[in-house]
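Re: the request from the purification team.
They wanted to know what the chain is likely to look like in 3D before they choose a buffer screen. I agreed to run a prediction and write the result into the notebook, where they can find it.
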Amino acid sequence: MDKRQFLKASGVVIADSLMTRVANGAGSMNTEARTNWAGNLTYSAKHLDDAASVDDVVKIVKSRSPLKALGARHSFNNIADTTGDQVSLVPHLDQMTLDASVPAVTVSGGVKYGLLAPWLDAKGFAVHNLASLPHVTVIGACATATHGSGIHNGNLSTAVTALEMVTGTGDVVQLSRASDGDKFNAAVVSLGALGIVTRLTLHVVPRFDMYQAVYEDLSFDQLRDNLRAIFSGGYSVSLFTDWQKHRATQVWIKKRLEPGADTKTPVKLPAKFYGTTLQKQKLHPITGHSAEACTDQMGIPGPWYERLPHFKMTFTPSSGAELQTEYFVPLDRGYEAILAVEKMRDQITPHLFVTELRTIDADDLWMSPCHQRASLAIHFTWKPEWPSVRALLPRIEAQLKPFAVRPHWAKLNTIPPAQLQAQYPRLDDFRALIRQFDPQARFKNDFLARNIYPA
């Protein structure tokens, strides 16, 4: 396996060159064939409309149907595709405004975390968490409940306090946590069903520094009685496994430094962690691969946005292709779910780059996979072998069905719609909101027809 293939699969920075640049000028179109960043999906949309302002979005919504917003193209399925037109808010809508008195930051629809994070840090603030891939748009990540890690950290959308969107009628609607309560909880993780989000306001926290350490060879036996303790071992904790030898090959522990702590000297690290051994050199999640692209380890302090991701924000892959799948199960049944998947290890490993196990706190967002339950996320980064992966997924999903499994909305799964829909108690209410905000079904596409709309 080529090193660069996995780096791209694991969430390093997407090259802006992967984004097809539309012609200059608001409302212009691109008719070339477009793919998502992994290359596994070619969009069916006829045109890509370029929006340079909210007014442009309104005009495009009123004149195009069906229509979907297209962000950084990091979705592995057709959630952002349509048989009509797509509209891009990247790169023109890139405004960021900080209100330090709240504190909160408001970002426009084209802003990516890779732009927001260093800008926010320079002003003395941070967001509570980051995904493993910083070059996704803030709005796209929040609309699909994309997450970072941390047993006490909600997914990225839990930072949202207000939003602005253009509905299917062309109206510009503002909703906030403070004023709109239940409706707001429905609209944050919208899956693109309610409208095109043009602005988000995020709660921010004072900036902080972090360090990380990697430990090797954690027996799954340790998770039987210590799963919560292990995932509580840092601000953010990730376990990597190839599902062989009943163990996680690596444990990545990211911890916050106390304010005022020494940021020039590496932190002295414990030699052991639940039977594991502290790294002797900087490591890549796949044993034996160069760690050049990975963020600094070995207890070296750095700003939050250079430690929460696994990979350097400035690293750009030059080649590679992959597939991604992720399943959420209740945290209190996480060990059982891991053992259930492990039964298929010899079928999984030949097609796998790596699996990452992470935790995410519960939230109240209607369509979040972590709705009202703390979760363990079981993430598969697959080799680009779709026929083999497609055959495996139903078998993995059958193993996870007893755990009320919920898939990541932007990744690949084969869970039957009736089974998926049964996991969301507010789905009927969400459908009613779709009818209110998009009465002509302007934003309906194959993804929503299958997974959200009634059969």
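For the purification team: The longest strand covers residues 209-219.
Please add any questions underneath this entry.
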